[in-house]
Amino acid sequence: MIDKENLKYWYIVSLRTLYKPLTFLPVKGNRVIFESFSGDGYNCNPKYISEKLQNEYGDKVEIIWAFNNTERFQKELPSNIKVCKYRSIQHLVYRLTSKIYVCNFLQAIEFPKNHKQISIQTWHGGGCYKTVGNQESGRLSSYVKRQNIQLSETDFFVSSSDYFKQKVIKEQFNFDGRILNVGMPRNDILIKNSSNEKMLNLKKKIGVSNDAVIVLYAPTWKQTLDKYETLDVELLKQSIETRFNKKCEILFRTHLYGNQKLSNVRNVSEYSDMQELLLISDVLITDYSSSMWDFSFTNKPCLLFTPDLEEYISNRGFDEDIFTWGFPVCQTNEKLSQEILDYSEDDFKLRMRKHHEFLGATESGEASQKVTDLIASYLDI
Fold it and tell me: Where are the alpha helices (DSSP H) in 58-171?
């Protein structure tokens, strides 16, 4: 059987060789290009850096975004930000002539790095959860090779904790470049106090009630779904309403590359900004997604629903034992219900404080500003 990933790898390597002479093109000193999840979103860390850069410097900086679906995201961007089709010729030109390249994923494509360019890797998670890089089992060698190509071209890697800096970036990704241990820009919105007006506007935009307990169920991507019990929505609602004495509304957001389905919930999988969903939610239920790290800084309850835990540990594995993270681990719907009914705000806050201390969290609410300041120091503005 033909290894498609290996063919893709050699296709990319061949085109990079062909494009190599173009890496000596002059860069435009005020041009910055952003990509998120291989062109699939206007979100995550790149979005919040882009917004801060736009707010700080306006038209002094030429900002480019590359999308697979340009029409979908064009309307979300300020009119003076340019958009191009991901992996198009126009994208190639912008990538090769941008002074700064910012992205949140590690899968090199056919565009090599310009010798005069600064590449900033923000990644898309924090904490001590799923293994990545050389510790991640089940990944094809061609996948790892593409990852390593991009790592070799990265100048700065953004980190959210001392643990992530040492154990993940340095050891699992084998990155020996410069590390910005300043927190994730996407989490600034969760750490800083948001105005009531902002919260009301977001709830109206998303379509949820202002006087209900908003529960967000956001599982990570996984291959095994059918043989495990699914979330019992009615039991979850009943448990939330009993514990908090308020009406409950459940939002469901599958992983960007997932295909999980759930009935009797409001599906917000097409909503591009996960951080805004986390901001308006009162409770997060996930499994192994690093959204738990983000949400932990709100001190609002987060519970893990993990019916496939043993298989996930066998197939993927964790940096640290899941039972030491501080989040209630629930392998059944009954356990999830009981944990909700027994929830203690003071106890949970204490557990989160210990979790942050153990990892040496560096989230401060100023990450966007710090990364923007770094970018500006390299631009001709």
Answer: 70-74, 89-97, 141-152, 162-163
Q: What is the pLDDT of residues 351-360, one digit of tens each?
A: 999 999 999 9
Query: 117 phi and psi, to 5 degrees?
Result: -100, 150
Residues 372, 352 share a domain:
no
Cα–Cα separations (whole angstroms), residue 66 to 35, 56, 251: 6, 21, 29
Half-sphere exposure of residue 299: CA atoms within 13 angstroms, side-chain side: 11
Q: Report the DSSP beta bridge partners of residue 105.
A: none
CATH number at residue 277: 3.40.50.12580
What pLDDT, on a 0 to 100 scale, did the predictor assign at position 196? 84
Ranges of residues in the chain with a pLDDT under 50 are 1
pLDDT of 137 reads 63
How confident is the model at residue 123, as a pLDDT? 97
Q: What tens digit of pLDDT does each residue of 212-225 get?
A: 999 999 998 765 55
Query: Which sign does the torsion angle of CA 234, 343, 285, 136 carry?
Result: negative
The CA-to-CA distance between both ends of the chain, in Å, stands at: 53
- Which tokens go with 336? 């999830």
Q: Report pTM.
A: 0.94
DSSP strands (E only) in the chain: 28-35, 62-67, 82-85, 98-103, 118-121, 156-159, 178-181, 213-217, 248-252, 266-267, 283-286, 302-305, 329-330
Task: Give the whole-angstrom CA distance, residue 1 versus residue 167.
Answer: 36
Predicted confidence at residue 227, as pLDDT, reads 77
Claim to verify: residue 114 and residue 215 sit in the same structural domain: no
DSSP for residue 24:
G
Sheet containing 98-103: give its strands across: 82-85, 62-67, 28-35, 98-103, 118-121, 156-159, 178-181
Residues, the chain, total? 381
Residues 220 and 272 in one domain: yes
